[in-house]
Records
---
Amino acid sequence: MTEAEWLACEDPTPMLEFLQGQVSERKLRLFAVACSRRIWKLLANEPRQWIEVAEQYADGLVTQKELNNAATVAKQAVGGRSANLAANADAFSATYAAVDSIDATSADAASILAANAVAHEQTRGAETVTGWDDAWKDERVIHSQLLHCIVANSFRPVTINAAWLSWNDSTVRRIAQAIYDERAFDRMPIMADALEDSGCSNADILNHCRQPGEHVRGCHVLDLLLGKQ
């Protein structure tokens, strides 16, 4: 995959194939989590808890044992096809993928299942092959945008200047931490302003912070500022 192909890609599958072995398990898990969070309204409390455990594990807040326990419960629920867990089977299957062992292939499976859930729900009662396909493809485009948020352009790697982080009593780092902790991604443009004030002129970083698209935990700019991999 070339840089131009990476930047233009709207399908997570080739992106994840390209990333095989090049990106951390944490980022792959947070991608699966981000896809599952888009179907939050389709889920009952239990699969929502699986998503939260997966996210907490990615950031070292719960143990491997706690993740394994959540995965075991999720696997049993998926195998039993518990109808009370979600609006449709694909929805809670996607959440199981988020707590199961993760690699690029299983992260793509999580995306596919979440897109299936969205397409099923959007076309419920008026399902046609074309309508289902269109809804599925639209959701997968959004997933590709989430992946672009989480994984930086490896063809043009960026680094963080320590002076940006120490500027004005660590203002940039404090803003970044608050955004991450509070899921306050609407404040990303504010962080861009602070970065500029600190001396950052990197267009890739600033443009990413100001882009209108959705940001999620694992966002590569936030991760750079907070020292996460």
Note: Residues 162-226 form one domain.
---
Amino acid sequence: MKKICCWLAILSLGAEVWAQTNPVASTSSTPQSDVGLHAGHAHYDGNARQVVYYDHVVVTNAQGRLSCERLTINLGDSHPTNAVAETNLDIIFVNNKGETNHLTCDKGIYDYSVVNAVTNETFTFSGHATNTMAQGWMSGEPLVWDNIKQTFNALDKVDVHFRTRPSSDKGTNNSPFNLLK
């Protein structure tokens, strides 16, 4: 799984809220994209530096769509530090290969921190987490994407299914590893 583009869109929205409440502008070199957000209700707490959207939350951008019942974003000094999407989380996104992925779960957590000049950025999906992609589907409890290391882990209860391509090999000596091509 490559970048979770919809989550990044949410975080850019959080950054926009942050920028509107702080006199210092963000110096991000990432190009901005249009982000749409629809929710039944929203609450912003300037003291807690937190924004909460709830009641049929839908976030869209050019790369995909995220929907859930409640989205909470904690704003840091220059970057959102945490985002939690809860209840019926459904993410559809296009990866950098142009392939559509569909991730569903009960809860998704984005964590961002810089400790001793080391950046940590992870996405954790739990509660019946399943990611369906062109090559098949996988589930695990939880599914964790490390955006800095570009690694993906399914920590427990892993179930993976691949869709195989028809083999052009003739004969009976086909290797079972051809399934992974």
Note: The chain has one domain: 5-25+33-180.
---
Amino acid sequence: MMTRLVAAALFLAALGAPAAELAGVKLDDKTRVGNAELALNGAGLRKRVFFQVYAIGLYLPQKSSSAAAVLEQPGPKRVAIHMLRDVGADAFSEALAEGIRANHSEADAKALEPRIRELAAIMAEIKEAKKGMAIALDWQPAQGTVMLVDGTARGSAIAGEDFYRALLRIWLGDRPVQADLKKALLGE
């Protein structure tokens, strides 16, 4: 009987534990987007030269180690970014735009530009992605891409699942922003 109680206590303790900790940032093993519960698929650190820029986690309805499967997976998704240093809104937005351009044909990237500008406008209102800030990029099928800053929705939803897939390709595309980060987000 005592062993069952200890096992049950350990199980319950594990449920409340973060799934990953990176550079002091704790990422929960589950999160909610709308009415859906999502699981942490993978997490990693975005580095630039010698600096850690942000910790990032990818949350999905179904875990997957295939980038192609993640991009085609239906339902809500979340990219959770936890800033580890201050980055100006322009630099943050330009980095996202560069990641999109690197993973799309010139024509496809051009077609996405109006929505890239919408995201940049939301970032401009925030002015700076500050150290400690939590930025979530959610795909909510009924609304579009929703940006949350420290849990509060910012700006209007950006239409089109193609746009959210373009964002995912920044980290999971054929030319990801960082190869080891792609592997980490895919749970490798």
Note: Residues 1-17 have pLDDT under 50 and may be disordered.
---
Amino acid sequence: MLIGIISDIHDNLRHLELVSKELNKLEIDLLVICGDFAMPFTLRGLLNFKCPIKAVLGNGDPDIQKFQYQLENLEVLKPLKLELNHRFHDFTIDGSRIGVIHNDEECLTKALIESRLFDFLCVGHTHKPEISVSEKTTIINPGSLVGWIYESDGEVPIGYATLDTTTKKAELHQIP
């Protein structure tokens, strides 16, 4: 199964549309979102994806969390195959246990990694694209769809990640 992974959309519908075109071309089977949609209207941008979506909320999503039940029942969002979780989600595909967390609570993320329960942990929040391995867990941070961070590092690329659960290979991708 090919999974697309994105995070930190922060209302950037233009970049969300660019990424949806890229991921639809790759014919992903599932989209994972690691939080920080920002405002509820951003959920409409997910209608461009042709696959089911598993997502968690981030620290920048208080309005979505507050109105989650009402949003899930909006007619315009009914076509979405969206499974929206508050702060954490885990599931198993092709024998790999996958966790999803926004990562704004670093001690929780660290505990999940140290638990050694996950083959893959998808994280966001830092806006820094990175794939690393800690013991048996591959940590995948796809970066962000806004490209900026709040540190002196300056601009970072706009991007996403993919995970092939058959080959167990994760890759980072940039949007030009």
Note: The two ends are 26 Å apart (CA to CA).
